[in-house]
């Protein structure tokens, strides 16, 4: 029995890590990787899709060829009839003995978004990067470490214990009831307490989910929390394995959804933060 429990803990950890990595790397705020050949040399550029804090967003291309010239094109997202492409020239710069082409996108209010693409010239002529599918970058406020770190820890542990609880319930190991209670507490602190605080710092809104809006990050946290509240209540008097397994499966599905999809978005006309759409450009 002890060996089985250890094995299930390991399986639960692997599922949690896999879901967390998948969620992060597939999310619309994770840097967009572009593989480009310039003057017969291969380059890999990580184009930013999120900018925290004050100041302009820095777009940099690590290129050691000083003969390359480039322009950064940008405009508001979502695009309105009056939005025209603006341009910024890339400048040569050296950081830690590495050469870069660097340009800045103008600062936006929290949850404000811009579209951008790059045009450059080399020995073979003029080329573009991401022109057909421009990059969407979202701006947010800076979240203090003393808020973000507990939020991340509690959410990760909640995901982990949710998987372990579901596995224990599936294999009829009695401790699943104890871990159901702990999972609920972790979701309460990580998702329902620290989550809105993070949202407030980042986008100046404590809550953008139901019933206020349709922010997917807030709503999927709420759904997971409700599922574990139900599992907890159904396990108060006697074990209900099915409720825990269902709650665990709901949590896996929810936390596998790319992070920040349908996330907060600034309505430029009203100045209010609303739920955004699935980004068509990424």
Walk me through what this model shows.
This protein is of the alpha+beta class. It folds into two domains: about 1-25 and about 145-275, no CATH class; about 30-140, Immunoglobulin-like (Sandwich), CATH 2.60.40. Helix content is about 40%, strand content about 25%. The chain contains five helices and 13 strands. The chain has helices at about 1-25, 145-170, 175-205, 215-235, 240-255; strands at about 30-40, 40-45, 50, 55-60, 70-75, 85-90, 90-95, 100-105, 115-120, 125-130, 135-140, 265, 275. Strands 3, 5, 6, 9, 10 and 11 form a six-stranded mixed sheet that branches. Strand 12 (about 265) and strand 13 (about 275) form a beta hairpin. Helix 1 (about 1-25) packs across helix 2 (about 145-170), helix 2 packs across helix 5 (about 240-255) and helix 3 runs antiparallel to helix 4. It is elongated. It starts with a helix and ends in a 7-residue tail after the last strand. Mean pLDDT is about 85; it is low at about 275-280.
